[in-house]
Amino acid sequence: MSASPNILDVRNATKRFHGLVAVRDVSFHLGRGEILGLIGPNGAGKTTLVGMVNGTLAPTSGDILFDGASVRSLPAFRRAHLGIGRTFQVMKPFPGMSVLENASIGALFGAKGGERNLRKAREQARESLQFVGLGRRIGQRADALGGPDRKRLELAKALAMQPRLLLLDEVMAGLNHVEIEEVIEDIRKVRERGISILVIEHVMKAITSLADRTFVLHHGEKIVEGPTDEVLRDPRVVEAYLGKKR
Amino acid sequence: MKTKAGIVVCAIVVAVLAALPWYGNSVMVQFGISVLLLATLAQGWNIIGGYTGYASFGNSVFYGLGAYGVAIAMVQLKLPFWVGMLLGLGLAVVFAALLGLAVLRLRGHYFAIATLGLAFIMTAIVSNLEIAGRNIGLVLPLLKSDLLFYELALALLVLATLTVFWLSRSRFGLGLIAIRENEEGAAVMGVNTTLYKVLAFMLSAAFSGLAGGIYAYYITFIDPVGVFDVALNVKMIIMAVFGGPGSVLGPVVGAFVLSTISEVLATKVTSFASMFFGVVIVIAVVFMPRGLADFAERFRRLRLRYFAENVRAHRL
Question: Which of A5, B17, B175, B301 is the most buried (most CB within 10 A)?
Fold first, then answer.
């Protein structure tokens, strides 16, 4: 194993879009096997931060260390090979492909460059689909799925990559209570496999029941970080939320 | 099982086509050569346009480069035909790689327009090259053997189709489809999108180039305006789309069906032929926009509702 105790270290990450600073000087770390929560009002820069970690966005300044080594200059597909998997809040399925093919792409190209054997990759994909409860929809086209199943597919695609770090960008948005419980249980099981997880959620129940630690982003800056229950009681967090959400 | 039956049927069709010079007349063989080359072009376009989702207007340029490769080798360098084919293939593939790196970062209309400009640029360049005979063109040695050209063109089409068949069930091909369906999603899941797109473009160019090479030796005279013809590119797109882009056999069937319709119209109604041909294409696009392949797959279940659904789905 590598010397770094952390799977992920983000150091002073800043992202500027022309005049607008979406993320300003944010640092955080994620330990091996840890679940870290990330919360904050809409527009706080959460998705931008995730984009910098998985390589869809290049940081304006700062550094991203995965497993102790900088991945800042690596394109997204190389970071996927290293073991960074991600789901999108605005889902990115392959609409014309079947559900099984969707997940197969993750298995074929994911961690370590993916499984080259088509049959084995399919097996791996089927397993992750069964894991999220999509086992019966394998033959359907992805664009025939309803909202909650699309969310599940997004998770299954990322899991089929066999990542070491999973970035979950609002996988529970739009799900009902029962479905949320199921996904929370799934994420717990994922962690038991030794996968480290960053959870972005507006669903507070998910954060309280999953995250060991949580940090809060507001107007692009990190305002609070600590054990989840303490963070949620912090007056600054309450203010940030109520001020924006009303 | 279904695939196996399909392979047997395809093998029989290929055998019947291969034997055509022995039971058909010379008109049929000549018509066959042009259809086989068009089908190869449509199939080549299918790799970049149908599978990868990048509507290339540069394939007629690869065709022209293939044609000039053979012409320059045979006329100017006095080399045999097959060396010319290799030269043409090399020119097309290298050019596709260089061009691809530059323009495959563009998407949608922008990619189409960028590649469209290419045919005009190439015409201008080749028209001023001494070795390519400037704007006068080159006259190749005459080989009076339609049989050879026919069988060559058929072999090339079979090779192109086998390549696409492999594509449809390989890791590489699935990567291309993922790029077509959602490029950012593909990259995030580990697909090296730039590499894959450039490789697809090169593969597409290879078949266009080889088809151009056969054409040059068959027709014995080429000039810049004739072989760098955007209309030819439009034709291959229409045929691929009519047949079903992103399917293994669609573009081939599309090329055969449209060429036959066009030929029949040209002999029966002569002056109005191109108008009727246009009508056929418009009707096809309105009622079966996903091509014959999709039609064959879903018509049995939906019957006439198939057309109604297509019209509804593509209404603004």
Answer: B175
Residues of chain B contacting residue A80, judged by C-beta atoms under 8 Å apart: 187-190
* Phi/psi of residue B303, nearest 5 degrees: 55, -135
| Smallest Cα distance from B5 to chain A, Å | 22
The crossing angle, in degrees rounded to 10, of helices B291-302 and B305-313 is 130
- Residue range(s) defining the domain that contains residue A120: 84-162
Q: Does A97 touch chain B if contact means CB atoms closer than 8 Å?
A: yes
- pLDDT of A245 > 50? The answer is no
CB contact at 8 A, B198 and B191: no
Q: Which residues in chain A are contacts of B171 at CB distance < 8 A?
A: 108-109, 114, 116, 118, 121
- CB-CB neighbours of A27 under 10 Å: 14
Q: Can you give the residue ranges of every domain in chain B?
A: 25-230
Residue A76 lies in a domain: no
Total structural domains in chain A? 1
This model of the complex carries an ipTM of: 0.92
What pLDDT is recorded for position B247?
92
Q: In this structure, is residue A112 part of a structural domain?
A: yes
Dist CA A147 CA A154 (whole Å): 11
B240 with B45: CB under 8 angstroms?
yes
Q: Which residue of A has its CA nearest to B181?
A: A94
Q: Say if CB B59 and CB B209 are below 8 A apart.
A: no
Question: Each residue of B260-291: pLDDT tens digit?
Answer: 988 888 877 767 777 777 787 788 777 887 78
What six digits make up the tokens of A15?
A: 């992202």
Q: Which residues contact B85 (CB under 8 A, 6 or more apart)?
A: B66, B69, B70, B210, B213, B214
pLDDT tens digits for range B149-158: 999 999 999 9
